[in-house]
Amino acid sequence: MSVKMFSRIIGKGHPVIILHGLYGMSDNWLTIAKPLSQNFEVHLPDWRNHGQSPHLPSHTYTDLVNDLKYYSEKNRLERFAIIGHSMGGKAAMRFSLEYPEYVSALIVVDIAPVDYNRRLDSASIFQHKQIVDAMLSLDLNTLPGRNEAEQQMVEKIGDIRVVRFLLKNLVRDGDGFRWRLNLPVLRSYIEEIGSGIDPLSVNPATSYPVLFIAGKNSSYISNNDMPTIRRLFPFAKLISIADASHWVHADKPEEFLSVVKNFLD
User: Fold this and answer.
1) Which residues of 7-39 are buried (b: 16+ CB within 10 A; e: fewer)?
2) Secondary structure class of 43 (helix, strand, coil)
3) What percent of the chain lies above the pLDDT cut of 90?
4) How far apart are CA 12 and CA 236, in angstroms?
5) Are 98 and 178 a contacting pair, CB within 8 Å?
6) Which residue, among 139, 228, 123, has the nearest Cα to 178 in the 3D structure?
7) pLDDT attached to residue 120
8) Cβ atoms of residues 171 and 180 within 8 Å
9) Residue 84 contacts residue 16 (beta carbons within 8 Å)
10) In 115-153, which positions are buried (b, 16+ CB within 10 angstroms) versus exposed (e)?
11) Residue 44 pLDDT greater than 80, yes or no
């Protein structure tokens, strides 16, 4: 069952859909979307179980692909460019391989079409389970405020920047707090979110240009991933941005925007 995703639409021109990653929301991409909107009609949807979109009991890539197709049909988008980060990049790759006729260009941000369940590095699924468990451990009924939430999360996760990114999803609800994220469902689908794309299950992408943007300081795209990328996207370009982590667009927005504009132009 497809869901009607909440979305922000700004600008005029050829449509560009920006797809956020796990734990994200459309707001995270406004810094990039606003300058892009000078030349493009930029769509910023919230995935199911994120942001202001509905919570549902399922979160597979089939769900996300179907949601994106439903969104494009409802908004009468016959052909558009896609920018997808992390989980959004995985969904963008799957959509573009399944429905190439919709895609004018594909930009994949710091993610590869590989199975991350088998990794032992910082991009591992185990780390994401720890993150979700840390969020679930907060007692929202007795939580005094955001400072206390930050302190408790830092004790469990360690990285203050990641914690502050996650806490953007914590909102006031009456006398207490609630998560915008559907944490129990996301926790149960972590392995699915980390899964790869079987190159033998789809035809390689040859009808639209493809760009992978990696953060130099990130481990999400490695040399070992390149054979799979090349099998699925034989003509793809790869650009690495120096001094950037997994959140390339937040670390180096000007450099990121320049790369994106040059590619889309």
Assistant:
1) bbeebeeebbbbbbbbbbbbebbeebbebbbee
2) strand
3) 83
4) 27
5) no
6) 139
7) 63
8) yes
9) no
10) ebeebeeebbbeebeebbebbeebeeeeeeeeeebbebb
11) yes
Segment 158-208, tens digit of pLDDT: 888 889 999 999 998 887 899 999 999 999 999 999 999 999 899 999 999
* C-beta separation of 18 from 108 below 8 A: no
Pick the CATH number of 7-114+196-264 from 3.40.50.1820, 3.20.20.140, 3.90.940.20, 3.30.420.300: 3.40.50.1820
Buried b (16+ CB within 10 A) or exposed e, 51-90: bebebeeebebebbbbbbeebbeeeebeebbbbbbbbbbb
Tokens of 235: 């003509």
pLDDT value of position 105: 98
Rounded-to-integer distance, Cα 24 and Cα 46, Å:
8
Enter the pTM of the model: 0.95
